[in-house]
Design brief:
alpha/beta; TIM Barrel; 8-stranded parallel beta sheet; two-stranded antiparallel sheet; 14 strands; about 15% strand; globular; disordered N terminus; Divisome_Glycosyl_Hydrolase; Glycosyl hydrolase-like 10 domain-containing protein; signal; GHL10
């Protein structure tokens, strides 16, 4: 008994006199491993995907910039950026016209895997059918898929996106079929939705299908106030249920494929696009989330980052939150100093990785990415 007592005192002594543990925010476990270092690669305002040689150069730029994960666009403007049997069967357009005869997704996977970089298929447009085309070929063939506002008009967001109804099971099955097509056909490391998947502008939900579904479940018509809390929660929950179904389907097909989401920041995302990502994490409907913390000064970035961390419901899920960081958009470029401040602030809040929007910014900030970022 005495030996046990002496041993206990010794253990207590050494514990009290050992190096002070790092300070952490309440309920925020320290990250023991480095997280992702990602970048979004798009076909807008960039020639990164314009040819096989361009893709090779893109991969080399990513490697030199210490990027580990490439999120490459595979779905926008109502087109796929890979040859799709589904799109060919449904609309007679197997791939975005400018990429006919090629397979940019396969090219990217092949080149990136040579350098041991991961490739995620980014379904950028999500439930948006088109932009400035009144729904394009999708809603022209399937007008019943359209999302509608309270006046029964086609749902169009302020940025010009024209929306499918993400609560309609036919729309859900269409989107799920495209995602599973990629998972089955390609050696992709992950798939990703963003602020349009799963999502719907809060003004939506007044199409015939959704109105009838709500009436069946609730016994009354939906409120005409699009921001009614119960009506908002009901629609957000429907999108959450879709994500849960999608997650299970992807994992049943290939368990090792990562399912990630890059929504807008909370609670703005839920209040405007019905994206309840804290619940997505809590229900384990995605492997990690990357809120788009797109800010133009350090104070705003720091404040928003900390708020996003605080919205994670379960402290064990803190390691599943990464930061979406804006480095280039239009004529805007983040300075190297601001970029370093944002990355350092991520680590100070135990956010172990980030994804940058977007690829072209790697070139502008090459001084930072090719030198300092390697040690972060």
């Amino acid at each position: 008994m005495k030996k046990i007592l002496i041993l206990s005192i010794a253990i207590l002594f050494f514990a009290c006199n050992s190096e002070e543990p790092p300070k952490i925010y309440p309920n925020n476990p320290v990250q023991t491993t480095k997280g992702i270092k990602g970048v979004w690669v798009t076909n807008v305002a960039s020639t990164a995907l314009s040819s096989l040689n361009a893709i090779k150069e893109t991969v080399q730029t990513c490697k030199k910039s210490n990027i580990t994960d490439i999120y490459v666009v595979v779905w926008n403007k109502g087109r796929t950026l890979y040859p799709s049997e589904i799109m060919n069967k449904e609309f007679g357009i197997p791939i975005m016209e400018s990429y006919a005869g090629r397979d940019p997704l396969l090219e990217m996977i092949t080149e990136a895997h040579k350098e041991k970089l991961k490739v995620h298929a980014w379904f950028e447009y999500g439930f948006a059918a088109s932009n400035g085309q009144q729904g394009g070929v999708i809603l022209q063939k399937y007008p019943q898929w359209a999302a509608k506002d309270v006046n029964k008009n086609l749902l169009v967001s302020s940025s010009g996106f024209e929306w499918m109804n993400g609560i309609n099971p036919d729309v859900q099955n269409f989107m799920k079929s495209l995602i599973l097509e990629v998972v089955k056909k390609y050696d992709v490391d992950g798939i990703q939705g963003d602020d349009r998947l799963p999502a719907m502008p809060i003004a939506g939900g007044y199409d015939d299908y959704t109105v009838q579904l709500y009436k069946t479940e609730k016994g009354v018509n939906p409120p005409t106030n699009e921001k009614d809390p119960a009506w908002q929660d009901w629609r957000a929950n429907k999108l959450t249920e879709f994500l849960g179904d999608l997650y299970k389907a992807v994992k049943a097909t290939k368990p090792n494929v990562i399912v990630s989401m890059a929504p807008s920041v909370h609670p703005w995302a839920k209040d405007n696009y019905l994206q309840d990502w804290p619940t997505w994490l809590d229900k384990k409907y995605c492997d990690y989330v990357i809120p788009q913390i797109y800010r133009y000064d350090f104070s705003a970035y720091s404040q928003t980052l900390k708020s996003q961390v605080s919205y994670v419901k379960n402290s064990a899920d803190r390691s599943k939150l990464y930061a979406g960081v804006l480095i280039q958009s239009g004529t805007y470029n983040a300075s190297n100093q601001f970029l370093e401040q944002m990355v350092n602030e991520n680590r100070n809040n135990y956010v172990s990785g980030e994804v940058f929007f977007f690829f072209e910014g790697l070139k502008y900030n090459s001084e930072y990415f090719t030198t300092k970022y390697a040690s972060k």
